[in-house]
Specification:
Layout lengths: L3 H8 L11 E5 L2 E4 L4 E4 L2 H4 L8 H11 L12 H12 L5 E5 L2 H20 L5 E5 L8 H5 L4 H4 L9 E4 L4 H7 L4 E6 L15 H11 L3 E5 L23 E4 L10 E5 L1 H4 L15 H16 L2 H22 L3 E7 L2 E6 L4 H9 L2 E2 L1 E3 L3 E4 L7 H18 L1
Parallel strand pairs: 3-13, 5-6, 5-7, 7-8, 8-9
Antiparallel strand pairs: 1-2, 2-3, 4-10, 9-10, 11-12, 12-15, 14-15
Helix pairs in contact: 3-11, 4-11, 12-14
Bound molecules: pyridoxal-5'-phosphate.
């Protein structure tokens, strides 16, 4: 009999190096494979499942809205989309929201908005997007051109024109790169795919100041770290700065595909009817779920849980670091934590999977932990005991 894995390998592009695991069910921070084996999930669908798997909040909203109105296109107003936009605006620096379906699309929208604004205000020569080395912004042609990792760009030449790079956490380097051609700087407040690299305490403030001095727009890509992941609704809130544009996706739909670009009114007014669009962007179905997810994150104590559990997890990792010299660094904020090793992570990820714990690597040597925001102390204790066992075997 052929397995799901065999058939998937036969019929689906092999763009992912998948683990040999077919998952069939999930509840909270747990998932089960087709043989009934249980796993604790510290990947969380790569920072997507903030409220965990089969969340009642999501299921209820999905059921109610699917029985009411699923899709009508953006030729019409719908209540859930309007409600979600209002919630995002009332809880952020922004005045307006554009909806799409993924993180890459949200960044595409941000790049287009920044260029259009600069074109109207300063003329067509001001069109360069300054991005960071080691960043990740997506896989479309524009967003991979904005991504500061050659392994992601390899084989796709010609890349799009109008992108250049500066070193993350290096204001002097950014200052040099900020010439008159730059219309916007795009930064992840914490580099997620790049290995959970955090900004130095005053770095983002310094970036804001440089952007203000040069009248350059500032885009925060909060696709991975936004919507509660760091213990605040948006990661930049920790650093006392606001951007001109912010992009979101991942946790905003808890697994339903949604992306959003938020901006101030001054910028939003350069997009009129026909400037940008998306057939599926912000359907009533997806936005009704997002409204429920956002309400739960804001009102059910999950931000506080994220901060508390994040601090607890870090403390546990520090305990492990005292025991295992191959742990080089522990980084992160809230429940995005990277543990850098002096060796490749893949064998440890595999061994943890064998023991019933799902984790993954960002870069080859950083173990990345992105559990649902509802994770408990008990579940973290199981993770730590398992890591202790696995680390001991790999010493
Ligand atoms: C910071 C950041 N931006 C953009 C993206 C792309 O998002 P998507 O895969 O939804 O297109 C990701 C995905 O990991 C991300 O981490």
């Amino acid at each position: 009999m052929t397995t799901t894995m065999d058939r998937a390998n036969k019929y689906i592009f092999r763009t992912y190096a998948r683990f040999p695991l077919t998952l069939v069910r999930g509840k909270g921070c747990r998932v089960w494979d087709e043989n009934g084996k249980e796993y604790l999930d510290f990947v969380g669908g790569i920072a997507v499942c903030a409220l965990g798997h089969s969340s009642e909040v999501v299921t209820r909203a999905l059921k109610e809205q699917s029985e009411t109105l699923v899709h009508v296109s953006n030729l019409y107003y719908t209540r859930p989309q309007t409600e979600l936009a209002q919630m995002l605006v009332e809880n952020s620096f922004a005045d307006k929201v554009f909806f799409c379906n993924s993180g890459a699309e949200a960044n595409e929208a941000a790049i287009k908005l920044a260029r259009r604004y600069a074109n109207e205000k300063f003329g067509e020569k001001r069109n360069t997007i300054l991005s960071m080395v080691n960043s990740f912004h997506g896989r479309t042609m524009a967003t991979l051109s904005a991504t500061g990792q050659s392994k992601i760009q390899m084989g796709y030449d010609p890349l799009l024109k109008g992108f250049k790079f500066a070193l993350f956490n290096d204001l002097e380097n950014m200052e040099k790169a900020l010439d008159d051609s730059v219309c916007a700087v795009i930064v992840e407040p914490i580099q997620g795919e790049g290995g959970v690299v955090c900004p130095d305490p005053d770095y983002l403030k310094g970036v804001r100041k440089l952007c203000d001095e040069r009248k350059t727009l500032l885009i925060f890509d909060e696709v991975q770290v936004g919507v509660g992941r760091t213990g605040r609704l948006f990661a930049h809130e920790h650093f006392g700065v606001t951007p001109d544009i912010m992009t979101l996706a991942k946790a905003l739909g808890n697994g339903l595909p949604i992306g959003a670009m938020l901006a101030t009114d001054e910028l939003a007014q350069v997009f009129g009817p026909g400037s940008h669009a998306s057939t599926f962007g912000g359907t009533p179905l997806v936005t009704a779920v997002s409204v429920a997810v956002l309400k739960s994150i804001l009102e059910d104590g999950w931000l506080a849980n994220c901060r508390d559990m994040g601090a607890y997890m870090r403390q546990c990792f520090e305990g492990l670091a005292e025991k295992y010299g191959f742990i080089k660094d522990i980084r992160g904020l809230g429940l995005i934590i990277g543990v850098e090793l002096d060796r490749p992570c893949a064998p440890i990820v595999d061994a943890c999977m064998h023991e019933g714990i799902l984790i993954n690597c960002a870069h080859d040597t950083v173990l990345r932990f992105l559990p649902p925001l509802i994770v408990t102390r008990k579940e973290i204790d199981v993770l730590i005991a398992t890591l202790d066992k696995v680390f001991d075997q790999t010493k």
